[in-house]
Design goal:
This protein has one helix and five strands. The protein has 79 residues and is α+β, with helices and mostly antiparallel strands. It has one domain.
């Protein structure tokens, strides 16, 4: 599964974030991973999933960061 991990780098509210995304091995009906473990700036950010037409996370995180991480995942998968 390590070969599916990918790096992300972005800026939100003037702060740069660097990290990585590890997609789950379980896929949904469209072939996308059902969740993504995300680490930002060497800190566990949480598990993201796309439900009800929006990105959700299992931790209390700023909406702007959740949306941007979701956008990074979408760009990686070109969706």
């Amino acid at each position: 599964m390590e070969d599916k991990i990918f790096d992300i780098v972005f800026t939100v509210d003037g702060k740069e974030y660097k990290g990585w995304v590890n997609p789950s091995g379980k896929l949904n009906d469209t072939g996308m991973p059902v969740s993504f473990h995300v680490v930002l700036n060497e800190t566990a950010f949480g598990y993201l999933s796309f439900r009800d037409c929006k990105w959700m996370i299992n931790e209390d995180r700023p909406t702007s960061l959740v949306k941007e991480v979701g956008k990074q995942i979408e760009q990686h998968y070109q969706i």
